[in-house]
Structure formats: C-alpha cells, structure tokens
Specification:
This protein has 347 residues and is of the alpha/beta class. 20% of the residues lie in helices and 24% in strands. It has seven helices and 16 strands. The strands form three sheets. The chain has a seven-stranded mixed sheet, with no helix packed on it. α2 packs parallel to α5. The longest helix is centred in the C-terminal third of the chain and has 14 residues. It is globular and about 50 Å long. The N terminus is likely disordered.
C-alpha cells in the first residue's frame, strides 16, 4: 500500500476522539492519509467470548497481524483441552478471514502457556509449545519445533524498506517470581533472575547485531518500560531491562519499537535513550475481549497520553518517506481511542 502522507503535526501528537475513521482514507481537515505498511496487534483474547474487534482489524487492511499473548485462555494441565481451546479460536469465522488474508505471527503469555504467571518451571511447557506452533501452522521441519521456546524473527519488505519483527518468549525461561509483602506490589524485585534465558539472549543479540532492517519491532508479551504497577513486568528483573537497553544501543539496530500486552489496558510509554534522536516506545495494547473496565489509575513514569481501559487493538502505520510511524489504539466499531506520532531516524 503506497502511501501519500501530508501531516502538519508537532513532533509527537496525541488525539483522543470518539469518531470512526476509514482504513486508508481518514480525513484530517482536507488532507487524506495513506500508508506504506500497517501492523495490527492485540492480546488478551478469550476464545469463548464475543470477539468484536476482528471486523475493525480486517477493515484497516493491515499487512501483518501480531498476537501479543493470552491469545486464548486455557490455564490447564490437560493438553487435550488446550488443543481444543486453540481450535475454538482457529475456527472463529472473523479470525479465519484475517488468517487467510495476511501473515500472522505471535508470542504467548501465561494463560495460553498454561498457568497463570507461570515461568520456567511450568511442567507442561514443552507440550504446550507444540500446540502453540500448531495454532500458527508452523511446519514440522521448522527449527522452532526442535528448540526450546517460541521466540522467532521474520523480516518483511515493502517499497524498498524492511521491518524486522522480533518475537520474544517471556515465559519458557523466566525465573520464578517471589510474592511481595509490600502493599500494592504482587511480586518482589529480582536482581539476579532472567526473563529470556541464556540461549534466547544469545539469539536476540545475534538478531539485533546483524539486523540491517529499517525498523526493528520487538514483541514482548509483558510490558518493558512500565514497572511501578506491581504486576508482571520486565521491571521485576531490572538487570534484564538494563541488558536489553544496552543491547539496543550497542547493536545500533535502527528504529526500535516495543509492542506489549498482558495488562487489559492500553497505553503508550516512552523513554529517552542517550545517543538516540527518537524515544524508545513501548506500545501496550490489551485486551481484545475483556478489559480493566474499573481501572482507577496506577503510576507509570514513562506514560505519555492517557490509559485506555476499553476493548482495544493496536495499529502501527509506517510512512517510509517521512520516517514517521503513527501508532493508534482502536476499539469496537474501529473507534479511534488515541494516537501517537513518532518521528524516527532517517534510513
């Protein structure tokens, strides 16, 4: 989708509104917008509940869809039940329409992994991994069938530009969480534990160090930047956050964007990174079938804009000529909930 983009906007733009907008012909005054490439993503999807967002996602005509985790809710040791739950989702008529139209990638979170907040000690993680890969129709001879964890990377090209999508596994190798005695905090800070594990870290370092893509989109099921809410987050393992940010800098990978889910809210977080002329953004989009409707606030020093606690999916709209990426939260009926424009470095 070749894009014509005329924007008279400030460096960063936020708009909260209640009107619908069409796929590639949203009117901004007298200016029509179209885009080179679109990525839609979402998380927290109960397979047995109504799924009202697929029609809006399909209507946006994305080039790629990313599952951000909790793609189904199983929470079971019964692998036959897990397989049946995946099949329910796979047979959803609107999801099938999307699946047949564009590439679909994703990671898992705890409820499709098999146990709430589970990590490396989940007894059925290997069996669960094979069912996860079945859900995505991963061939039997694919390397992911033989290695531990569902991490994966794939590069997509359009109009002479490339986007490297790096899918992380924050479950298979993650160190155990310890309950906190501090009010409002579910888990203690673990200064020695790991999220990704040694092998996945080695793989990620290789991916970023050798990436020549114009954009590097990192998909993490849990939030990376927001760390004050006391639930699951990379912030429970501060040494892992430090290691990740250091890798972003030393690898010199271009235009890094983080996508996350898990929280049943949607929000934008950004952090200034020394030496970068653009912010590190963590775009959280959650949930697709149920949301934190009674959300009353929580701290996040990196938050920009407002928290959206309605059903939501995320959309990234790339304009390669300008180097801008418009990030949108959209809801039922394709309602535009909030948008955020980021100016990335030139290629």
């Amino acid at each position: 989708m070749k894009v014509i983009l005329s924007l008279f906007l400030s460096f960063f733009l936020f708009i909260s509104c209640g009107s619908n907008s069409k796929v590639t012909q949203k009117e901004t005054g007298n200016t029509a917008e179209t885009y080179d490439y679109k990525i839609a993503f979402g998380s927290c999807n109960r397979q047995e509940k109504a799924q009202p967002l697929w029609s809006a996602i399909i209507g946006e005509k994305p080039d790629l869809f990313l599952w951000g985790g909790d793609n189904i809710y199983a929470d079971t040791e019964d692998m036959a039940q897990l397989e049946a739950d995946y099949q329910i989702q796979k047979n959803h008529p609107d999801y099938k329409k999307l699946w047949k139209t564009i590439p679909v990638l994703g990671t898992w979170d705890d409820h499709d992994y098999g146990e709430n907040d589970a990590g490396k000690d989940w007894e059925y993680k290997d069996e669960s991994q094979q069912l996860f890969l079945d859900f995505f129709d991963v061939p039997e001879n694919d390397p992911r069938r033989e290695r531990e964890g569902v991490y994966y990377a794939e590069e997509f090209e359009e109009a002479g530009n490339s986007i490297n999508v790096i899918v992380l596994d924050t479950r298979y190798f993650r160190s155990n969480l310890e309950p906190s005695e501090k009010p409002g905090q579910r888990y203690k800070i673990n200064s020695k534990g790991t999220i990704l594990g040694a092998e996945q870290w080695k793989w990620l370092e290789n991916e970023l160090n050798n990436s020549t893509a114009d954009y590097n989109v990192i998909l993490s099921s849990i939030q990376v930047l927001s760390a004050e809410h006391g639930f699951e987050t990379w912030g429970n393992f501060p040494s892992e956050v430090e290691k990740l940010e250091k890798l972003f800098k030393t690898s010199e990978a271009k235009n890094v964007i983080i996508l996350s889910g898990d929280r049943h809210i949607s929000e934008f977080s950004e952090k200034k990174i020394e030496g970068w002329d653009y912010p590190l953004v963590d775009f959280t989009s959650s949930g697709m079938t149920h949301a934190y409707s009674d959300f009353s606030g929580e701290p996040n020093q990196y938050r920009v804009g407002e928290v959206v606690s309605d059903l939501s999916f995320g959309l990234l709209k790339f304009d390669f000529d300008s180097g801008q990426v418009k990030m949108e939260m959209r809801g039922v009926g394709n309602k535009l909930q909030q948008e955020y424009l980021v100016q990335y470095r030139d290629k």
